[in-house]
Design brief:
alpha/beta, nine-stranded mixed sheet, two-stranded antiparallel ribbon, 7 helices, 11 strands
Length: 254
């Protein structure tokens, strides 16, 4: 059994608590205009040229080989606080293939984190819930879900599945990317705050989207849109509005 990934990032500090090893799985069912990992949108392996050399975005790796790579960092997992994070793309699209690896990691007491949009079939969410110690959930375009291809009905249903799970509330993080063009408007912000009212015990992180992925878009011959950076004043405004319904909110940098 193998999975398709683009990168194994070691010593990650923003993909869950402690020191983590992040696996970026290829393939996503959303199309967010601000995506900072465009190489993970398409499940197919994509070729590009850099400095005259042909390279690939994506490769297949067996679960046995992937586990060997992950266990190289086991000594840095901070007595159980750190661990392995599955990101993407949308990692739940390949979670069924990951099952033997998830079983093995759990048997070794390695703590597992998923970063997900939750816009997937509920059966994939239920698999995740059997193995996840931490979950990071995106809240993006609620006022215009068709913009990114979000299945809003499934998304809301799946958040409630997570809420009813046995995962500790403090281990569930809702992450909100902010940009003026798509997510930071009154309609969307009001919808986000309304959703957060139902989950006051979850942690919430807000962050500015950035333009650091421009070279990746060019390699992939995909259209790149430069975003105006959200001001610190507007970040504070969003922080204060969310804090009225959820006191566990903070600004982060990604």
């Amino acid at each position: 059994m193998s999975v398709r990934i683009t990168n194994i990032q070691r010593f990650s500090l923003h993909d869950g608590p402690g020191i983590r090893t992040t696996v970026f799985l290829k393939g996503c069912n959303l199309r967010c205009p601000w995506c900072c990992n465009p190489e993970n949108m398409d499940f197919n392996i994509e070729k590009y040229v850099e400095n005259g050399l042909e390279k690939d975005f994506g490769f297949d790796i067996s679960l046995e080989e992937l586990e060997k790579e992950l266990l190289k960092d086991e000594a840095f997992y901070d007595n159980g606080k750190g661990g392995v994070t599955f990101s993407g793309g949308e990692p739940l699209l390949q979670v069924e293939k990951l099952l033997p690896l998830l079983e093995s990691l759990k048997s070794k007491n390695i703590r597992i984190c998923f970063e997900t949009s939750l816009s997937v079939d509920k059966k994939l969410v239920l698999i995740m819930l059997d193995y996840a110690d931490y979950i990071y959930i995106d809240i993006k375009s609620l006022s215009n879900p068709s913009l990114i291809g979000l299945d809003l009905e499934s998304y809301l249903y799946n958040i409630e599945l997570v809420n009813k799970s046995t995962i500790k509330r403090e281990n569930i993080v809702l992450r909100i990317p902010l940009n003026y063009e798509y997510t930071l408007n009154e309609d969307n912000l009001s919808n986000i705050i309304h959703l957060l009212q139902s989950y006051p015990d979850f942690n919430v992180e807000i962050f500015k989207t950035h333009n650091l992925a421009e070279s990746k878009y060019k390699h992939l011959n995909k259209q790149f849109k430069s975003f105006k950076q959200v001001s610190d004043e507007d970040m504070e405004m969003v922080l204060n509005r969310i804090r009225k319904v959820n006191k566990n909110v903070k600004i982060i940098s990604l």
